[in-house]
Amino acid sequence: MQIHRVSSWTELMELLHQDAWNESLQRFRSPYVFRGQGRRLPLTTSLQRLGGDPRELERHLVRAFRKYAYSSVPDRDLLWYWLAVGQHHGLPTRLLDWSYSPLVALHFATASEALYAEDGVVWMLNFAETNDSLPAPLRQLLEHEGSAVFTVDMLDALGKNAGGLTQSHLGFDSDTHWLEQYETVAGQPFLLFLEPPSLDQRIVQQSALFSMLSSPDAQLEDWLETHDGAIKQIVLPAGLKTEIRDKLDQANISERTLFPDLGGLSQWLRRYYRVREHQSGLQHQASLEHTGSRSASGPPLGGPLGESETEQLRAGRAPTPDEARLHQD
């Protein structure tokens, strides 16, 4: 696996957009999908992080989710649809979140200020290359559809056409047995990408898609060891995170746009206006300087500040809503 530790925003942008030129299309179309993490953690699914046997846990989780979420979700009798809905709402699944957008990945790598003392990472996975290792029927379906990723309907069609259903393949197994069949023929797990339905604006705004290994207990990083050229890791030094974060905000990549509801708006405002620790120190220093300059011959303490002095104090705190609006509108 290639690991790059960047030292500047410019270097970061170059790495994220490399290999984007598509000769056959004569356009810039990156073959990579991206995943951002606030700290360096393995590529495990939420299902695997529960512990226990992922295969057994998965069937219970999906069955219970479908039962209790029935009145809140437009019903489609497709396992893959329910897995996508569950993953989107925090259900532990075999799916792993990715984005077509490198800037969205950078958002998730820098969104948590609690992790600013730690290096973050952005994973780049060449899904065009991993598709080459798919079983033939899956590759043929993608070629027929002119697509590089699957939809829930395409996965359902693969299951129906796989055949070989026995009495032991009932319920949950009736929707997943074909994965095991193709895995047995291939002699190893395989990786595919699923583009979820546009369940809400969050999925649309985040350019979201999911990766899925044919076996829920297979480890993605173990699988990638045999496909080493497909994965890259970009390390974001802790000292660079605040610059990345501020430039993403300026580019309109924030909680407000990626989570377009009142919760996302509130998260963005809380983070955007929070005074950073070094800013707090600057504000305190400016206040002391102001006090000292007025103790001898200036106006009484607490009196009105001159325009230049107001600007000095502004340098040590977050902007007011009116100041911010000048840069946002």
Overall mean confidence score, pLDDT: 82
Could you state the order of secondary-structure elements as H and E? EHEEEHHEHEHHHHEHEHEHHHHHH
Number of strands: 9
CA distance, first residue to last residue: 42 Å
- Counting DSSP H or I runs of 4 or more residues, the number of helices is 16
**Which spans have pLDDT < 50 for at least 5 consecutive residues?**
165-170, 280-284, 293-329
Approximate helicity band? 40-55%
Biggest sheet: strands side by side, in what order? Answer: 1-9-6-4
Radius of gyration: 25 Å
Write the SSE topology.
Blueprint: E1 2-5, H1 9-16, E2 21-22, E3 27-28, E4 32-37, H2 54-69, H3 79-88, E5 96-99, H4 102-110, E6 120-126, H5 127-130, H6 136-145, H7 152-162, H8 172-186, E7 191-194, H9 201-205, E8 208-213, H10 220-225, E9 231-236, H11 241-250, H12 255-258, H13 262-273, H14 277-294, H15 307-314, H16 321-328
Parallel strand pairs: 1-9
Antiparallel strand pairs: 2-3, 4-6, 5-8, 6-9, 7-8
Helix pairs in contact: 3-7, 4-11, 7-8, 14-15
